[in-house]
Amino acid sequence: MMNRMNTWAVLCAVVLSMVLYACGNNDKPKKSITDTLTSGTISVAFDENYKPVMEQQLKIFDSSFPDAQLQVKYLPQEDCFDLLLRDSVRIIVAARDLNAAEKDYMKRNKINIRSVALARDAVALIVNPASPDADLNREMLANILLNNYSRQYDIVFDNKRSGIVKYMQEQLIPGKEFGSNIYALQTTDSVIKYVAEHKNAIGFVAVGHLYDSGDRTGNGRFRENVRVVALKSDSLNELYEPYQANLFDGYYPLTRTLYFHLRESHRGLGTGLANFLGQERGQAVFRLEHMLPLRVPLVIRDVILK
Questions:
Q1: Angle at 77 between CA 75 and CA 83, to 5 degrees
Q2: Is residue 302 part of a domain?
Q3: What's the pLDDT tens digit per position in 137-153?
Q4: Same domain, 143 and 111
């Protein structure tokens, strides 16, 4: 009789444990997977500096995978990272790697994010066509940003949370604050317009916004309402503009690397988009948009004009 009671008690305990475990799991139901490499709906965020090239990427991606629905946000760079770390988007494209604080946050919260370099881009300086400064070096740039230059300039960026703001501060005046002559105008187009209309203005923009959309030569030509400043190379005593060939050779000094950062625990649509950007068709778009693709070889050929 005692053995039967003991056996019954054990069985009751096992059943109770199973019930409690099931109830506990019901409190935190697992997310069902509704997307694949080529279908489904996800949210993504792209650095707004790269809207021209990413719009071209999405035209091809959408036509290739009609069952894939990307809910796209174009935002300042730092806002993209905020959304990624809050798990509000599946993938971002931005012009920096994860920093030490973000990697520490990921480690503490057991978050897995995969990051891959896609392409290299230039930060271009633009001035009004009437400006006397058609070429500059690093020291002159640093003095302009600190408001210590011989001529007074208004410095205009697209947004105070822009990746370009952070990049220029880290590259040219590390550990220092900008001078009082710095202004944020919200968009890249407004930066270009302001510089075109003000002789004493200098703007910093991603070079992809400066190519003339009406150019039919195939070589790439900058728009004429602003002047693109030539910068002295860090390795050579020569001046270079931010053309694709000068990115390839490493002569133009202000370049950034474009990454995708993917937060996805399965091989879903985020992985599909990342694969597309890193493979032949996506890399070809970066090349055609005058960037330097990093996942496939780029060949620059010398052309002899007769």
A1: 70
A2: no
A3: 999 999 999 999 988 99
A4: no
